[in-house]
Amino acid sequence: MNIGVIGGGSIGLLLAAYLRKSQFNVNVYTRSKRQAAHLNEDGITLYKNNQTEVFTVHAKVMDELCDLSDDIVFVTVKQFHIKAICEQMECKSSIPRTMVFMQNGMGHLSLIKKLPIETLFIGIVEHGAMRLSDTEVRHTGAGTIKIGAVQGTGVWSHLWKSLNSEEFPVVVLNDWLAIMERKLVVNSCINPLTTIFRVPNGRLVSNLYFLNLMRSVYEETVKSLNLAGQEGLWAEVLLVCEKTGKNRSSMLRDIESGNQTEIEAILGYTLRKGKEQGFEMPITKFLFESIKGLEQEEREKIE
Ligand SMILES: NC(=O)C1=CN([C@@H]2O[C@H](COP(=O)(O)OP(=O)(O)OC[C@H]3O[C@@H](n4cnc5c(N)ncnc54)[C@H](OP(=O)(O)O)[C@@H]3O)[C@@H](O)[C@H]2O)C=CC1
Ligand SMILES: CC(C)(CO)C(=O)C(=O)O
């Protein structure tokens, strides 16, 4: 079976490595020629705790492909890249029948549902991963990948079963929208606060002042999504903080490396939901403006 992974970032390299570990043939589609060349030459080096493993992969430049003929393709770009990916797909002579989109945040669903593919999955990533170079990735926090079928179902249970392992758990859940919303709550609570205070995820639990702030963000978020009173949701946020305790959130790393963040897809979305229902979300608004402000600071430093 041929499996494609679009995006050679932190999650793309992590996923490609574990797919290879499960003996699948993996093609990684990168944005740059340089990264594709490095991956073909050196493979992917995966660091986890004190272990180092190297996996060979085939890599190609996404823009240079005429067709994408893998059996299944995982899309691991950032949420704000999805529009460009959908446009690139329109130019290919053939596209896969099954795709899995693994983005944080909401808002891209309407775009991906328009793609002419039979089976569409979303994947919720609860792992922490950090790309160290074009070919090296560190598995910084072990979590779970949750898969949900948005349209079609296909016959993929063998893939999820083969990929699933103790160190890389994969579960299939029926209620994918609920899973996405729960992940949105997790990211709304963790990502902006860790970015403003420049702390790893675990500090939001071990520092009581940060914990109080996170609880306030949580209250506003669950109200905007009509999830107030959902059993186990606050415990889930705390568990992710603990499990990825040493991890710097993807938003913090984006700000530190001068990249755009996914704030629009995370707090931008919950703010819109709150507005639709006519209530104020002062803390969320403060966090949203703070992250937009930090993005601008970083941009102006570079210019
Ligand atoms: N990293 C983490 O720990 C976690 C991440 N997530 C989520 O997973 C998703 C991916 O995150 P992450 O891997 O960290 O992001 P990265 O920024 O590390 O990776 C995104 C990759 O997509 C590539 N890319 C962008 N556009 C294209 C394109 N048109 N064709 C091919 N490649 C493209 C980028 O290329 P280039 O390198 O050339 O810019 C980059 O390598 C996000 O939604 C994130 O929120 C969720 C949980 C944890
Ligand atoms: C799970 C978590 C919070 C891990 O850091 C994440 O999704 C992110 O960083 O974007």
From TrEMBL:
State the family it belongs to.
Belongs to the ketopantoate reductase family.
Report the residue ranges that make up the Ketopantoate reductase C-terminal domain in this protein. 175-295
Q: Kindly list the GO molecular function terms attached to this UniProt entry.
A: 2-dehydropantoate 2-reductase activity
Q: Where are the transmembrane segments?
A: none
The free-text function statement in the UniProt record for this protein reads: Catalyzes the NADPH-dependent reduction of ketopantoate into pantoic acid.
Report whether Oxidoreductase shows up as a keyword of the record: yes
Which pathway does UniProt place it in?
Cofactor biosynthesis; (R)-pantothenate biosynthesis; (R)-pantoate from 3-methyl-2-oxobutanoate: step 2/2
Whether Lipid biosynthesis counts among this entry's keywords is: no
Under which main EC class is this enzyme filed? oxidoreductase
Domain of life, per UniProt, equals Bacteria
Question: What are the coiled-coil residue ranges?
Answer: none
Q: Which reaction does it catalyse?
A: (R)-pantoate + NADP(+) = 2-dehydropantoate + NADPH + H(+)
Q: Which organism is it from?
A: Alkalihalobacterium chitinilyticum
Q: Which residues form the Ketopantoate reductase N-terminal domain?
A: 3-151
Name the record gives this protein: 2-dehydropantoate 2-reductase
- Look up the EC number in the record and give it: 1.1.1.169
